[in-house]
Amino acid sequence: MTTPAGYHAACARLTRRGEPFVSVTLVAVQGSTPQDAGSKMIVSAGGLLVGTVGGGRIERRAIETAGEMLRDPTGGPTTQLVRWNLQTDVGMTCGGTVTLYFEVTNHRRWPVVVFGAGHVANRLVRLLCKLDCRITCVDPRQEWLDRLPRSMRLEPVCMNDMPHYVQQLGDDAFVLCLTMGHRTDRPILEEIFRQNRRFPYLGVIGSRAKRSVLKRELIQAGVPPDRAEAFRCPIGLSIGTNQPQEIAISIAAQLIQRRDEVRGAARTPDASHVALRENLPNDSATGIDAAGH
User: What are the structural domain ranges in the chain?
Assistant: First the structure.
C-alpha cells in the first residue's frame, strides 16, 4: 500500500505549526478487511485530514480513538497499538481483524506565549527552546525579534497591536508580559480580562509596586476587582540576581513548576535528589523578589 498523497506534507506542516495530530497506520490485517496493511491517515483536533484506514465504521472508530488521545488533558499515552475484530469490536459484517498503530505528535508540546522580545525575554526564549514546548514571541520591533534564536519550536510575531493577538491564544497557553514597560503590559492584561480569558499561567515582569498600579488601573478600566487580582507580578522563583540570564532562569523554573501542577505530575523528589539539594550551598538564593525587584 502506498503512502497517501499529501501525508508527509501534512505531517511536516502540522509539526512546524506545533499543532497536535495523530498518525494512524494499519499495520496488519487478517481475513476480510476493507483496506490493505500499510494504509495511513492523519487526524487532528478538527477530524480526518489525510488518508484512510478503511472507511465506514472502522475509520469512525479510529478517528474517535485518535480524538480521545488528543483531548486527554494529561497528555496521556503518545502511542497505542490496538487489535480489533471487525465484527465484535467494530460492528461490521466483515469477519476479519485489523491492527492499528496510533502515534501522537505535539500533544504534550507545552504552549508558552511571551509578549516582548527584550533582554529578559530573549534569554527566556533561549532557555525554553531547549525544552519540549511551543513558543510564540510577540513584539512590534522586528529588529528585536531578529535577535531571537532560530528554532522549530519558536514562532516570532511582529505586531504593533499586541493586545489584538490575545484572541489567538489557546486556553492552555502560559502567558507572560515582558514588554517595554507598564504602558505596554497593561493593555494586554486589560484585553485578556475583557475577553474573560483564564490561562493556567499569567504573569507580568515587575515589582509589587507595579502590581498595585496595574491592579488599580485595571479596576478603573472596568475589570472586576477579583479578576484584576488574577495575574502574577513579580514572576519567577525567588532565586538569583538581577542579571537578565538569572531572572530568565527563575521564570523558566516557575513555568515548569506550574506546568507540572497543571498536569498533576508534580512529585516529591526522590532521596537522591533530596540529598543532592541538601549538599548545595545556600548562598545561591538571595531571597529577592523574582525578576530582581
Answer: 7-105, 110-266+285-292
